[in-house]
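[job 4471] stage=fold_predict status=RUNNING
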Amino acid sequence: MAGGGFDDKSRGARAHLYEYKITSYFVCSCIVAAIGGSLFGYDLGISGGVTSMDDFLKIFFPEVYRRKQEHLKETDYCKYDNQILTLFTSSLYFAALISAFGASHITRKKGRKASILCGAVSFFVGAVLNAAAKNITMLIIGRCLLGFGIGFSNQAVPLYLSEMAPAKIRGAVNQLFQLSTCLGVLIANFVNYGTAKIHPWGWRLSLGIATIPAMFMFIGGLFLPETPNSLVEQGKLEQARQVLEKVRGTTRVDAEFADLVDASNAARAIKHPFRNLLSRKNRPQLVIGALAIPAFQQLSGMNSILFYSPVIFQSLGFGSGAALYSSAITGGALVVAALISMTFVDKFGRRAFFLEAGVEMICVMVAVAITLALKFGQGVILPKGIGIFLVIIICIFVLAYGRSWGPLGWLVPSEIFPLETRSAGQSMVVCVNMIFTSLIAQCFLVSLCHLKYGVFLLFAGFIIIMTCFIYFLLPETKQVPIEEIYLLWEKHWFWKRYCSSEENGIELKNGDKV
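[job 4471] inference complete, writing structure tokens
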């Protein structure tokens, strides 16, 4: 039995029987689905740029605009410290975490495709409202609709890619989501760079362009096949086999299809997937996939840099245009990092990228903190050389994050949950991720104001904890079939006490074990 079951140990021997070819049908399906990442990425990139535009601030945040013009009279760290301004950014992520639970039900009952389409529609409507906003209320409502769209797409797309991908290239395929996210960030930075010169409505264009990836996602989504895993889960076995044969490019899919059916049988025995996620045998998936990794991904401090990189660079003494341009450089570094990770993650594994990048990120955060402590003060414009140094080391940080916690923060959770708790587990991933994303978004600027350079030391401390967690508690998952990941927990030095067949039976609908 797959995933949470432990009564069929022989099933682990089927993996070598899996066959596949890379078909155009498979490639096109994954590329279309991965567009969902661009929704998340475009918003990450666009928000910070818009909130640094004077035309936007004059209309919605005149107090912040006034403070920005009087920066010599106060600490530069505090120029953008305004809770309503940060609510503009974080409201989207509060909405996304709420929508993730609705997305779980739709993803499990109606399929991954249905959630992708729902996300595209909601994001489109939200983008239209934001572009046409006349007041704060309209702006926040639009942001919430964008959040609903991101909640649905972030819940469904990583699952879709992991389930469609053959085990040997699952890491690279799943990271199409991260690559799409990074491209969204990069495009948003260049859009901001251009629209900042269009007065007084350039910010409306920046927000309105978000409708374009939403349209692509919806139109492409109409033609997407459902994943074989989801079709089996819905009882559509014949259709599931047809899709599996088509995406694998061969009719010899008996072993993989048998594993999907076994996994589906286990899933049907689970009446309450969220409750089952809390059971002892699912403890490693709960702790690692649903709680730790999505929280740590945000505690790295990376999204703070993406949210507010134009604001940060302006606070560090760069001009408005130079700040947006510097942000575009970091966006480009993120794309390069995603390509590096896609190329090598299935060769070197998840743990190697987590660990070596973690060391780099710690060093960079400490270097940023020391530089700001020595060279940055009240009303002081940073020397050009120091400014260039900060941009370079921030790019190094982005490269490290972009090949580790960025893509792997979505890849690892999407591949470790058994089918019976997969949609519920991914909803927890999105929910926890968005909780910490919204908290970081809401708290970063006020923390920058009060902690000053110490906020970067705080992130360095978090990264040390994250890296130790990965070293001791995450087994390597590269090239392991998704329905056989559970075997890793039985062999792990720590998790085997929760997942051994002697400790756990098969949980039935009434909660009994056999």
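[job 4471] summary: The radius of gyration is 23 Å.
[job 4471] exit 0
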